[in-house]
Design goal:
By secondary structure, this protein is mainly alpha-helical. It has 7 helices and no strands.
């Protein structure tokens, strides 16, 4: 029967295993970088199409075509209320603010860049909410298009995927 390995050797093996496991795990992000780039490109296309709509109803339908996630459903319900109240000019700011808060809270357990992206959406949303109504579509393009692309590329580069 062989003599047991010294405790020191086993401890070093365990530490080596833990270190290798942590290195392989890398940084966690619940937000795929290239997915964000795709979302941003889609939003830029929507902004391009929305800017060419002849009526506010068609503009609204163009942007609502992207609302398929549960938080967006809530935004959709608020959209109906604001639109019926004659506050269509408040929609871009409301959408950007709600979307940003989703990233801030949802990204709390992700890498730091995710809630930072949410804060940027919230700043753009505040500008849309309190700025001239004519800025709404351009700020939506900057937020949903530009921020997704910029942060998506940062996430893809730093964290892969």
């Amino acid at each position: 029967m062989a003599a047991p390995r010294p405790l020191h050797d086993r401890a070093l093996d365990n530490l080596r295993f833990i270190r290798q496991t942590m290195e392989r795990a890398g940084s966690f992000t619940a937000v795929p970088g290239w997915g964000q780039v795709a979302v941003g490109a889609t939003a830029l296309a929507a902004a391009f199409l929305a800017a060419r709509q002849r009526t506010s109803e068609l503009w609204l339908a163009t942007w609502l075509g992207l609302s398929f996630l549960p938080p967006m459903v809530v935004g959709g319900l608020l959209t109906v209320v604001l639109y019926r109240a004659g506050l269509a000019h408040a929609l871009p700011g409301t959408w950007l603010l709600l979307y940003g808060t989703g990233f801030v809270t949802g990204g709390a357990f992700s890498v730091r860049i995710v809630p930072v992206m949410g804060i940027c959406f919230m700043f753009v949303g505040a500008a849309a909410l309190f700025g001239p109504a004519a800025w709404g579509n351009w700020l939506m393009a900057a937020g949903f298009g530009g921020l997704h692309i910029v942060f998506g590329m940062i996430i893809a580069r730093r964290y892969g995927g």
